[in-house]
Automatic annotation (TrEMBL):
Keyword Ligase tagged: yes
Protein name, per record: DNA ligase (ATP)
UniProt keywords, alphabetically: Ligase
Cell cycle keyword on record: no
Family, similarity comment: Belongs to the ATP-dependent DNA ligase family.
InterPro entries, per database record: Adenylation_LigC-like (IPR044119), ATP-dep_DNA_ligase (IPR050191), DNA_ligase_ATP-dep_C (IPR012309), DNA_ligase_ATP-dep_cent (IPR012310), DNA_ligase_ATP-dep_CS (IPR016059), NA-bd_OB-fold (IPR012340), OBF_LigC-like (IPR044117)
Domain ATP-dependent DNA ligase family profile: 105-227
Species whose genome carries this gene: Streptomyces toyocaensis
Enzyme category, top tier: ligase
Length: 355
């Protein structure tokens, strides 16, 4: 492979802001795996956000890119999996598997797509120093008439259209809007774009915690919600605390600490089979590796208000929830899924076109 922009490339990043800023190019924020695609003839490589290759996990994507991209190019985009007109991040994460036979099976069962939203090189020319508006024109021209599973991400400079996307696209599994300055050059690993995400609050049961890697202070709070059957389901964690606050939380939660997990709603967390019928902390995964997933059980009697942006398949917080305050006025049984706002469904095909 011999391209004007060579791997590894660290993608350009975005910082969070509260409102959609005016006077920019706007795109949907895709909920997938960020990928930089390098194609030189028959050679195709998919680089992850960390620079590690993703190619072997998505052979069907690599084959489609080999057929549909210009002979020599570098593009920035997102690998996604769609099911029933909705992005499915859980299905996407399952694609990262060490066994080649399993990778091939999943490529047929849950095929992925590539959504291109930037171009970094074409032919022998690097486009890293070309303004965004010009790169966008080159991207559209390079992928004119492209067919699924390769797509060009919709973009607009109309802020009212972007506001409409912000409200509608969440129903298809997207989690916000990205705003990019029109004259922006491609700046690797710098937060020079802007992301606007939904923020909602929920009252959750604090049912345990994990210790911080630095010592005997709280690393993260384990959060739960009750389902229709009255079972406390693990829905995520809250982890962003100053070190002083982490130490205070140990003392605050000590009266709720359980010496024996057997009486806890998540007592079966160490049993891998139990994770098939309930959401429990410590689920084994390829992402956790050898990470210590042990946790300290608490009597599920304390309620906290947390902020979150997105629910994955309506079951868990997609990202780390942000602690807001304790809610002594709420009872744990009142912390159910019913309080959560459900986005209006929106068909992904309406965004990308085609099946």
């Amino acid at each position: 492979m011999d391209l004007p922009v060579m791997p590894p490339v660290k993608p350009m990043l975005a910082k969070s802001v509260a409102k959609i800023p005016p006077g920019m190019q706007y795109e949907a924020k895709w909920d997938g795996f960020r990928a930089i695609v390098f194609r030189d003839g028959d050679e195709v490589e998919l680089g992850s956000r960390t620079g590690k290759p993703l190619t072997r996990y998505f052979p069907e994507v690599a084959a489609a890119l080999r057929e549909r991209l210009p002979q020599r190019c570098v593009m920035d985009g997102e690998i996604v999996v769609a099911r029933e007109g909705h992005l499915d991040f859980d299905a996407l994460t399952e694609r990262i598997h060490p066994a080649d036979s399993r990778v091939r099976t999943l490529a047929e069962r849950t095929p992925a797509s590539f959504v291109a939203f930037d171009v970094l090189a074409l032919g022998d020319e690097s486009l890293l120093d070309v303004p965004l508006t010009d790169r966008r024109e080159l991207l559209i021209r390079a992928l004119e008439g492209v067919t699924p599973p390769v797509h060009v991400a919709p973009a607009t400079t109309d802020i009212e259209v972007a506001r409409g996307w912000f409200e509608q696209y969440e129903g298809a599994g997207l989690d916000g809007v990205i705003a990019k300055p029109l004259n922006l050059r491609y700046r690797q690993d710098e937060r020079v774009m802007f992301k606007i995400k939904h923020e909602r609050t929920a009252d959750v049961v604090v049912a345990g915690y994990r210790l911080h890697k630095s010592g005997p202070v709280v690393g993260s709070l384990l959060l739960g919600l009750y389902d229709d059957g009255g079972r406390l389901q693990h829905v995520g964690v809250s982890a962003a605390f100053p070190m002083k606050r982490r130490a205070e939380l140990i003392e605050e939660l000590e009266p709720l600490r359980m010496d024996d997990v057997s009486g806890h709603p998540w007592a079966a967390w160490a049993d891998e089979a139990a994770h098939g019928s309930a959401r429990l902390p410590g689920a084994p995964s390829r992402w956790s590796g050898r990470k210590d997933l042990s946790w300290v059980p608490l009597r599920p009697e304390r309620v906290a208000e947390v902020a979150y942006d997105h629910m994955e398949n309506g079951q868990r917080f997609r990202h780390t929830a942000r602690f807001r305050r304790w809610r002594p006025d709420r009872t744990p049984p009142s912390c159910t899924y019913e309080q959560l706002e459900e986005p209006v469904r929106y068909d992904l095909a309406e965004i990308l076109g085609g099946p």
